[in-house]
Amino acid sequence: MDHIISIRDFSRERLDHILDTAQRIGDNQYDARALSGKILGLLFFEPSTRTRMSFETAMARLGGACISIDCVEASSIVKGETLADTIRVISGYADAIVLRHPKEGAARLASEFATVPVINAGDGAGQHPSQTMLDLFTIRQSMPLEQVDVGLLGDLRYGRTAHSLAYALSLYDVNLHTIAPKGLELPPNVVQELRSRKMKVREHSSIKEVIRDLDVLYVTRIQRERFPDTASYYGVASSYRITPELLEGVRERLIILHPLPRVDEIDPRVDALPYARYFEQARNAVPVRMALLLEVMK
Amino acid sequence: MSENSHQKGLIIRPITNGTVIDHITAGEALNVLKILGITGTTTESISVATNVTSPRIGRKDIVKIENRELRQDEVDRIALIAPQATINIIRECAVHNKKGVTIPPLLKGVIRCPNPGCISNTKEPIISSFEVTRKGLQCTYCDWLITKDIANHII
B5-100 domain in CATH 3.20.20.140? Predict the structure, then answer.
């Protein structure tokens, strides 16, 4: 049985296979009744709008149906039911389960108790593999993943999307540039692991020094709660803000991605520039998740 | 105590039945007792020698436990903090069985995950699980990596 738990479980071949399927789906080459009669169980123990809605959309586009817990407060969970029991019960109703849970490792646990495939849609500060896949997919739409300079900007210490994406990119011919405020750098063990996988990793403290050398700029949010006071947050956040002025003289093929929601990281004036691809990235959630659903349920 | 101390006189006397854990990394004897759940209130007779000279490993600790033969899961735990230890099972004053310790590739129920956000630290019906890798011990559930102070995380 195929579970989708962590991007680390994927080889380059398997990732490419899913992204190729997503590409065909994006080109409208798919059977709209492929999952007709199948039921997807959506278990969201944490709030989510886009992940949840994109999975619902993906299932509907393939002719399947969804069941979900609408309100965790009104379910058996408040009565003290374990996740293991919930998963065993929903396994009897659905053909696959999509899980978001506040605890790290929840999806791994679910895969041990489920009798149907489990897709991890975010477990606490842990993994969110379908996000990484749609990030890769969006880059691949613009350029082949060969000799690409990718910059990761923002909170690289706590940001799970950045870690997963860096790991996935290490399977390809990519030079990684990290740009993070002091104290929010990519953890040394992650850098070490990427380098041991033969990835070139260069660490920068300023976006200005590297922006002209990038093909992809992946922006993540710098969270206010990581700073002792509002003033120091604004000081740092403003020096990492992406503006049209900063983008003067950049490579022609540069694309800017962001997992969204954004707050102040990207000036809205950037939206009109050809580099801005974050809304396209959000749209790509549907074909990529359709590919994943086909992968686990066909 | 040196390896040939039998000729020179004994710091701690031999046992009739039980286990002798020899070649424990110097200074780890008390952690070995902790792992085995041996506290001041347990009934076993214990002898401990710490920081004695050893031709093989320089300095070592020795623990002798009377009337108790260690189980495999206990031996696995000891391997984590004293990888060079040897376990001698003694029956009627003779060495019945002598073996080294090996760290198994997967530690089930041995280590508590230090990550408070890990699902293995909740009331879910699972036991902790750590993979032994070159970099350290990695939680199967949340990927947390333990590289030092392993003794503090042993259940």
Answer: no
CATH of segment(s) B106-153: 2.30.30
Confirm if B51 and B2 have CB atoms less than 8 A apart. no
pLDDT tens-digit series, residues A224-252: 777 888 888 888 888 889 999 999 999 99
**ipTM reported for the complex, 2 dp:** 0.86
Is B126 touching A (CB cutoff 8 A)? Answer: yes
pTM over cut 0.90:
no
Which among B108, B121, B124, B127 is the top mutation candidate for probing chain A, defined by the most A β-carbons within 10 Å of its own β-carbon? B124
The SS3 of residue A242 is strand
| Spatial distance between the Cα atoms of A268 and B70, rounded to a whole number of angstroms | 67
Instruction: Find out whether the peptide bond into A261 is cis, omega within 30 degrees of 0.
Output: yes
**CA distances from residue A158 to A126, A173, B16, B114 in whole angstroms, order as listed:** 10, 25, 56, 17
How many alpha carbons lie under 13 Å from residue A242 in its C-beta half-sphere?
Answer: 32
